[in-house]
Write a structure and sequence with these properties.
The chain has 265 residues and is an alpha/beta fold. It has 11 helices and 8 strands. It has helices spanning 18-31, 46-50, 63-71, 98-105, 114-119, 139-147, 162-178, 198-211, 226-233, 238-241, 246-260, and strands at 5-9, 36-41, 84-85, 90-92, 128-133, 150-155, 184-193, 217-223. Strands 3-4-2-5-1-6-7-8 form an 8-stranded mixed β-sheet, with helices on both faces. The longest helix has 17 residues, at 162-178. The protein is globular. The relative contact order is 0.19.
């Protein structure tokens, strides 16, 4: 299998649907035959729980353990010890202890490349590696940006902030200059949308005015629906929970947009 994409889902604002997007994009890509690895890189562990891991704190080998071994220069265990295989896709889970790793990264020489050291050897195993990041621009997010090829930015019209998006883009471009020259912004994904409202139209117009022609704004909009919350509560993707729902159809369409931008696949 050829080496393919590592994608980070990032926005320093909470409530924009990062975890939901990582989960459902991964599942939708798996449904069209792609081999996918999810990477939970948020100490809140929501992506791990969406995978069906009910008690992330009881994971024997989590992201924190693996990154600590890398920082200590020690050999990693077998991949099967820290990659959990599902029916459709795999995951490297995490728990609250990952927040301790973020503290330790401050004193680590070249610490911003720690996640890259873990993921680069896994490239040949997967078509897509999708990283769910935490909701602030700390060292964990910098690690994710240093490790990825592309960033997808989920934006909710209800929480849209020109200043916040500008700060995130500046951070991405700074990482590109200083750490990871291959990183690009794959695009902005509008999430939690009610297209009937003036709020949605105003936010969409502002995004088009500020970023249209400079950064891709995905054609797909993820609707605001209680079905997504129900799926999250059931620890399932919306695609598996209710394949006929508007959100499931939207994430499937979004995955095809992402896949269609994938070059010669």
């Amino acid at each position: 299998m050829d080496s393919n994409k590592i994608i980070a889902i990032a926005n320093q604002k909470g409530g924009t649907g990062k975890t939901t997007t990582a989960c459902n994009l991964g599942n939708a890509l798996a449904d069209i035959g792609e081999k996918v690895l999810l990477v939970d890189f948020d100490p809140q562990s929501n992506l791990s729980m969406s995978f069906g891991i009910e008690r992330p704190d009881e994971i024997a080998v989590s992201m924190q353990n693996i990154l600590s071994l890398i920082m200590d220069g020690k050999l990693l265990p077998d991949k099967s010890d820290y990659i959990i295989q599902g029916e459709k896709l795999d995951i490297i889970p995490c728990n609250i202890n990952l927040s301790v790793t973020e503290i330790n990264l401050r004193d680590e020489m070249g610490g911003e490349h720690t996640l890259s050291e873990l993921l680069e050897p896994l490239r040949s195993d997967y078509n897509y590696i999708i990283i769910d990041t935490n909701p602030y621009l700390g060292l964990l997010t910098i690690n994710a940006l240093a490790a990825c090829d592309e960033v997808i930015i989920p934006v909710s019209p209800q929480l849209w902030s020109a200043t916040g998006l500008t700060d995130l883009l500046q951070t991405i471009f700074k990482v590109k200059r200083k750490i990871n020259p291959r990183i690009t912004v794959a695009g902005i994904l509008l999430t939690i949308c009610d297209e009937r409202t003036r709020l949605f139209r105003d936010a969409k117009n502002l995004l088009d005015e500020n970023y249209g022609g400079k950064i891709k704004i995905f054609n797909t909009h993820i609707p605001n629906t209680v079905k997504v919350g129900e799926a999250n509560y059931a620890s399932r993707s919306i695609i598996d929970y209710d394949a006929d729902s508007k959100a499931a159809h939207a994430y499937t369409a979004f995955a095809r947009e992402v896949f269609g931008d994938g070059g010669d696949k």
